[in-house]
Write a structure and sequence with these properties.
With 124 residues, this protein is mostly helical. The chain has one domain (2-123). Helices cover 85% and strands 0% of the residues. The protein contains five helices and no strands. Helix 1 (2-26) packs antiparallel against helix 3 (37-60). The longest helix has 28 residues, at 66-93. The chain is elongated, with a radius of gyration of 16 Å.
Length: 124
C-alpha cells in the first residue's frame, strides 16, 4: 500500500506541474479573460499541497495504524479529485454546476487529515 500511495503522489505531483505550466503559459489569457485564473491557481495549489500530504502518508504508512492510513489515502484522493478536479472542469468548461462538488472535496481533504491524525494517535 505504501508503494501505491507514493506512486499516486508522484503521478499527482507531475500532473500538478504540467497543469500549472499549461495554465501559466498556454491558458493564461483565457483564464484571465474568463476570470478563472484564481480558481485554476487554487486547484493546482491544493493538488500540489496534498501531494506532500500523500508523500508523508506513504512514507509513514508502516509506522502508524494502517487501516486508518489507508482510509486517509482514499479520502485524500477523493478530495483532490472533487476539489481540484471540479475547479479544473469549471475553469475549462465554464459549467458552474461543477462548483457544487468543490466543498465536498474540501470535506474529504479535512477528513483525510483527521484520519491521518487518528492513525498516528492510535499507534502511540
Amino acid at each position: 500500500m505504501s508503494k501505491l500511495i507514493l506512486s499516486t503522489a508522484t503521478i499527482l505531483g507531475v500532473m500538478s506541474i504540467i497543469l500549472g505550466a499549461f495554465g501559466a503559459h498556454l491558458l493564461e489569457d483565457y483564464l484571465v479573460l474568463s476570470d478563472k485564473l484564481n480558481s485554476f491557481e487554487t486547484a493546482v495549489k491544493y493538488q500540489f499541497y496534498h501531494v506532500f500530504f500523500l508523500m508523508i502518508l506513504g512514507l509513514c504508512y508502516n509506522q502508524f495504524d494502517k487501516s486508518l492510513a489507508k482510509y486517509a489515502f482514499f479520502s485524500a484522493l477523493m478530495g483532490i479529485f472533487l476539489f481540484s478536479g471540479s475547479l479544473y472542469i469549471l475553469c475549462f468548461t465554464n459549467l458552474t454546476m461543477f462548483g457544487i462538488l468543490t466543498p465536498f472535496g474540501g470535506f474529504f481533504l479535512i477528513i483525510a487529515w483527521l484520519l491521518f491524525l487518528s492513525s498516528i494517535r492510535k499507534s502511540l
